[in-house]
Automatic annotation (TrEMBL):
Pfam families listed in its UniProt record: APH (PF01636)
GO biological process, one term: threonine biosynthetic process
Protein origin, superkingdom: Bacteria
Name the UniProt record assigns to this protein: Aminoglycoside phosphotransferase domain-containing protein
PANTHER family: AMINOGLYCOSIDE PHOSPHOTRANSFERASE DOMAIN-CONTAINING PROTEIN, AMINOGLYCOSIDE PHOSPHOTRANSFERASE DOMAIN-CONTAINING PROTEIN-RELATED
Naturally occurring in which organism (per UniProt): Ktedonosporobacter rubrisoli
Lineage: Bacteria, Bacillati, Chloroflexota, Ktedonobacteria, Ktedonobacterales
A molecular-function term among this protein's GO annotations: homoserine kinase activity
Aminoglycoside phosphotransferase domain boundaries: 46-273
Coiled coil: none
Membership in a protein family: Belongs to the pseudomonas-type ThrB family.
Length: 335
């Protein structure tokens, strides 16, 4: 698969000099002078994240939102949710208020309209698959996710959320993917057939009342830290929105399946249900939502490649994704 040639603007769209960012942040926020600025994640289309450290030893996370990646209302929704969770006592990386009273603003008004925001840092080490196989970390992580879901049950705001519905999880990714699978018609046919099967299985469960509410949107991507005492702090709510909680939880099961480490899921699930027991319909839906993960990933990659912000995914990796789906379907849907 060959991606379109990237333009010079696309190649450089995520880059700014560290000293420029340090100056902009110091002028906008009531913080001590910034001594260092390190790239944590640089992306030309989505968001870039930097770690800032001040002269008095404090550290912050600087988010530079990608052009056209998140709209002003979506960022307002994210900020409102984070402030709500913090008020409820949930450990999250919270946005700092600027000297003008706002929580985010254009980077360089009139010149660079990308939005930027500054967040508190999260103590501890990354919650990743490797650490979550341990009962201590896995169960604490499960309880923390349950607290996020419970604390956000009464969250309301005037900003429209990102909807994690079947269009978002399946049909939009497939639409992005289709042009890139013209040389793999049988695989594309399989993905559409699997999507139809997933929707058919989930529809009666949704009608029975799957739990719907605020979701973080990207739990397994290293977006939480955990301390030795079990404090879990979440950050990067960029993909937050409204969705089925079973779909959110399926991300953990999918990660455990990829690693072939079922303990990750069992520890997480035990901790989650200590705080927030799951209904039978949600448990039945989780394996079906697992199958949406690779489809969403492939579709998101295809969208990036179409825009010229990423290279084409090698056929070998596509084969790996499809192999996972075939195996998952055989083990869980053909019983």
């Amino acid at each position: 698969m060959n991606a379109p040639e990237k333009s010079a603007q696309q190649k450089d769209s995520g880059r700014m000099r560290a000293d420029e960012l340090m100056t902009i942040v110091t002028q906008a926020y009531p913080v001590e002078p910034i001594s260092t600025c390190e790239v944590l994640r640089l992306h030309p289309h989505q968001n870039s994240t930097y770690v800032l450290r001040t002269t008095n030893g404090a550290s912050y996370l600087l988010r530079l939102y990608g052009r056209h990646w998140r709209s002003h209302p979506r960022i307002c929704y994210e900020i409102s949710l984070l402030n709500h969770l913090a008020e409820k006592g949930v450990a999250v990386s919270t946005p700092l208020q600027r000297t003008d009273g706002q929580f985010f603003a254009p980077l360089l008004p009139g010149k660079d309209e990308r939005y930027f925001a500054l967040f508190t840092s999260a103590p501890g080490e990354l919650c990743t698959g490797g650490s979550l196989r341990e009962y201590h970390a896995g169960s604490h992580f499960g309880r923390a996710v349950a607290h996020v879901h419970t604390a956000s049950d009464d969250f309301t705001c005037r900003w429209e959320p990102l909807l994690h519905d079947l269009d978002y999880l399946l049909y939009e990714p497939l639409a992005h993917l289709s042009p890139w699978f013209q040389h793999r018609p049988h695989d594309l046919e399989y993905l559409y057939a699997l999507t139809e099967r997933i929707e058919k299985a989930l529809t009666p469960l949704m009608e029975a009342g799957l739990n719907w509410g605020v979701c973080h949107g990207d739990l397994p991507s290293g977006n939480a830290h955990i301390t030795s005492k079990g404090l879990v702090t979440f950050f990067d709510f960029d993909g937050c929105g409204m969705g089925w909680r079973a779909a959110e939880l399926s991300q953990i099961l999918e990660g455990a399946a990829w690693r072939n480490e079922p303990a990750i899921w069992s520890h997480f699930l035990e901790g989650y249900q200590e705080v927030r027991p799951l209904h039978a319909s949600d448990m039945q839906a989780i394996p079906w939502f697992v199958a949406t993960g690779p489809i969403w990933f492939l579709g998101t990659w295809a969208q990036e490649a179409t825009l010229g912000f990423s290279d084409a995914l090698p056929d070998e990796q596509v084969d790996t994704m499809l192999g996972f789906l075939h195996q998952w379907e055989e083990r869980h849907f053909n019983e």
